[in-house]
Amino acid sequence: MQKSLIFTKLKLYKEIKKMKRTVYFLIDLSDSMRGSYGDAVNTAMEVVAKTIVPQIMYQKSADLTISFKVIGFKGEKDIRLLADVPFEDFPKTWKPIPEVEFGGGTPTGAAIKAVIVDILGYLHGDVDSDALPPVLILISDGISNGRNPTYEEVMECADRNSPRYVSAFRKAVRVAIGVNVEEEGRAALQKFGAISHYMRQIGIQPYYDCSAGYPEQLFEGLECVLHETLIPHFGVSCEPG
Predict the structure, then answer these.
(1) 64-75 and 207-210 as β-strands: parallel, antiparallel, unpaired?
(2) Is residue 238 domain-resident?
(3) Which residues, in sequence order, are bridge partners of residue 136?
(4) Helix extents (H) in the chain
(5) How far apart are the C-alpha atoms of 210 and 122, rounded to whole Å?
């Protein structure tokens, strides 16, 4: 009886350890991101693929399966899945975003809505019970415009229709990175960011200001978030300055 109980506990522990986590990169492909802003994003994503991912690959737990999904947005009905691959395949498959892809509005709300739908598995069945809260990293230079739904409108719609629809999004690690943003855009992006008290304690910020002229600021922010969410307790220091 005692031996059976110990075996059951060990089995449950082993099953609990095997978890999954998805990292979503939401990249603004609007017209204002064309040029140096887009170049900074491409440089930073190249560093993620060639440097950061290999670093994490050798340090993360073997019981954690990671997926990367890169979503580009530039129109309410133009939400593009640029990558959907296992973490370890990202260095081999990621390609820079061509300049021709930049152009259009900034439908941040529509992109967030697409992520909520994907998180909850409406396209792929029920929510995966083995999935850890996802990591959402939004990279943009400003606020929603035109007829695109705003962040607030998406959240209000989600709350009206079903609490479950938005619960996974609210549990997610959400970080916004602003590229050369002005005050109004910064305020909008800061509403997106949401992290736990623990993550604040280890130095992760819900919002990072970056300059297109200094792409290292962008990939330093990405490095902090990815290290501390994918290999907790073994990441780099994320303290500003």
Answers:
(1) unpaired
(2) no
(3) 24, 174
(4) 2-17, 36-47, 53-57, 90-93, 108-119, 151-161, 163-171, 183-192, 197-201, 215-230
(5) 34
pLDDT for residue 241: 37
The answer to whether residue 8 is domain-embedded is: no
Task: Determine the Cα–Cα distance for residues 81 and 66; give it in Å rounded to an integer.
Answer: 17
SS3 138: strand
* Sheet strands side by side (includes 135-140): 78-86, 64-75, 19-28, 135-140, 173-179, 207-210
Cβ burial 16-30 (10 Å sphere, 16+ → b, else e): eeebebbbbbbbbbb
Query: According to the model, what pLDDT value does residue 235 have?
Result: 40
Angle, to 10 degrees, between the axis of helix 183-192 and the axis of helix 108-119? 10
List the domain range (segments joined by +) for residue 146: 19-230
Q: What is the pLDDT of residues 9-59, one digit of tens each?
A: 444 444 445 788 999 999 999 888 999 999 999 999 999 999 999 999 888
Q: What angle do CA 30, 121, 144 make, to 5 degrees?
A: 20
Q: Is residue 1 part of a domain?
A: no
Closest Cα to residue 79, out of 119, 124, 123, 27? Answer: 27
Cα→Cα distances 60→25, 55, 74, 229, Å: 20, 9, 34, 10
The candidate with the shortest Cα–Cα distance to 138, out of 2, 23, 49, is 23
Cα–Cα distance for residue pair 56/90, rounded to 1 Å = 12
**What whole-number distance in Å separates Cα of residue 28 and Cα of residue 41?**
9
Question: What residues are paired with 131 via a beta bridge?
Answer: 20
**Whole-angstrom distance, CA of residue 177 vs CA of residue 211:** 10
> Is 3 inside any structural domain?
no
CATH of the domain at 163: 3.40.50.410
Q: How many domains does the chain have?
A: 1
